[in-house]
Description:
single chain; alpha+beta; two-stranded antiparallel ribbon
Amino acid sequence: MLSNKKAAYSKYKIPTFITGILLFILILNTRYPYIFRTAIIQARSGFSIPVLVIFIVLILMLSKENWYNRSGLFIFIVIMFAMALAGLWASGQSERQVINGLIPDTDAASYYFDGLRFQNGLQFSYFGARRIFFPAFLGVLMSLTQSNLQITLGALTFLMAISAYLATSAVWKQFGSVAASIFFVLLFTFARLSIGKVMSECLGLTLGCLSLYFYLSYSSQKRFVHLFLASVTLVLGLITRAGPLGIYPMLMLGIYLQEKDKNKKKNILWISILSILIVVLSFSGISSQLSPNNSIPFSNFAHTLYGIASGGKGWIQIYKDYPELKNVSEPGLTKLIYEYSFQAIKSNPKNFISGLFSQFPQIFNFPGRDGFFSYFGGENPLLYTISQISLFSLSFYSIYILKKKKQYEKYKYFLYGLIGLLLFVPFFPFVDFNKMRVYAAVIPFINIFPAIGLKALFDQVSFIHHPKKAQEEEQVRPVKSPVIFTICLLLMIMAAPILYWKMIPDHAVAFTDSCQPEDQSLVVKLSEGSYIGLLEESVIYLDWLPYFHESQFKKYLHNFQIYTVQAFENVSAPSFITSSIDIRDGQAVIVIFQDEKMVYNDEPLLICGQWDDYDYSEFNANVFFAHEYFNIN
C-alpha cells in the first residue's frame, strides 16, 4: 500500500511541478481588475482574511496523506507566493527597499547595482563586499534572465516557494496538519515582507527552509547526507543574510549529544567542521575575485557594535555622535567606527552591558514591535496583542514538551538551537532591523516552536488526523528531488559566480561621444521588465506595473523619508524610470527617459542628458534625465 502511494506521487511529481510553474506565471501576468486584484493585494498586505483562509485551506488539504494532497500543497504554496508578488505589482506600493512596486531602493538598490556590475565584468562596491554571496548569486541569476528585473524577482520568489513547500511538508510529516498549517502561515507572513525586493533575506529564508527540511529528514531517517545538507544550507544562509550564528553549533551539539554511537558522533563532528570550511572557502574565493581592495566583510556590524556600546541606541547613533563620518568613504569608515566603538566600550563598559541586555525584553515586542513574531498580527492593536500572546504561549509550551515528553526527544536539538540563537540576540538588535529581517535564515527554526506547541495541544483531539504513515514511507524510500534541487542551488551560489566571472568577456565599449557639448553622457544597457512608466492624469488606465499615473507614484513616495521624495521632485509624466549602471565605470544611475523603445535594445546605448542637482547617491543613485540616445554598434 505504501509503495503504491509512493509510486502514485512520483508519477505526478513532474506534472505537479509544471502546473505550479504555469499557474505562477499566469498569476503574475493576469490583469483582471475586480476580485482578482483585491485578492492578490490582500495576499500581499492583508492579515485577518488571508491568514484565516490559508489556515483553513491547509487544515482541510493536509487532513489525509495522499499524492493529490501533496501535489495540492505544492500548488497552493506556489499560488500564495505568486499572489503576494502580483499584489505588490498591482498596487504599485512604495515600501522599504522598493519604489512603486519595482525600482530597488537603499540596500536593495546597492545589491541590484552590484548584480549589474557583475554581469559587465566590474567588481562589487564596498556594500556588496559585505555579504558577497547574495550579490554574486544575483549577478548569475540576472545573467540568466537577461537583466529582466521582473523575471529575476519572480525567480527569487519561486525559489522561496519551493523551499517553503519542502519545510512545510517536513513539518506536516513529522507533526501533522495543524502544526504544518500554523507553520506555513507564520512563514508566509514573514516571507511576503521580502517578496518583490532584491534583498538577501530572500535567499537567506530559502536556505533556512531547506535547512529545516533536512534537519527534520535526518531526525526520521538518520541519513548523514541530509545532516550535511542541513548544515551547509544553514551556515550559508547565516552568512548570506548575516544572522545569529550561534544557532548552528548549538543545533549540532544537540544532535551530537543525542547520538550514542561513537562512530556516528565522529561523523557529526566532521560534518559540522566540513560545512563551515566549505562555506568559508567559497566566501574567500568569491571575495578575492569580486571585492574591491581592502574591503571588510560584514563591515556594517561596526555600526551595530557602536549602537550597543552606546546603550542600545541603534546603528544610526554613530552618525549622531560623529556627523563628520558621513563624509568618510569605505574602508576607512568602518575602521573609524570600530575604533570609536572600542573606545566607547572601554570608557563606559556598563553602557555596553546595558546595550547587550536591553535586547532581551524586545524579544517579546516590548516596548516596540520588532521582536520574535513581530511580523504576525496585523495593524489592529487588540488582534496583534492576542496573536503575540498566543504564539509565545505555544512556544513556551513547546519548550516544556520538548524537555519532558519522550515522544519528542528526537527533536530536543531544537532547544539547543534556541539557546544558541538567544545568546546572539544582543549582537543583532531588533531596533536595527525592521520585522526581524536579520533573522531571515532562522525564521523556520523560530516558527517550529509554536507549531510543535499547537500540535501537542491537539494530540488528544480525536477528530484531528495526523498522517503517521508518511514518516514510515519516508524511511523506506528517501526523496531524492529535494537533495538534487538543494545541491544545484548550492552550486549556483558558491561555485557558479567564480566560473561565470572567469568566462565574462571584455565589456570595454568603443564609441564616439555624439552628445552636445552642454550635455553629459552615459553608456548603459537597459532591460525589459526593469522599468516603470508614469502616465498623465488624462490617460485612462488601471494602474498596474509597469504603468502608473503620476499622482499615485508621488503619493506612494511619501511613504519614504523626505530625501527620497526630493530625489524625484523633478520627475513628471509622461516618462519612464529605470535603474542601471554606466558600464564604463560601474557608476549607479536612475535614468529618466521618454522613449520606451530604449529598453528593447539589446546593445549598449549612449545616452545624452543632464544630472539632477539633488544628490541621492548616499541612499540609491543620482537621477539622470535623458534627452537623446544613440545605438553603439
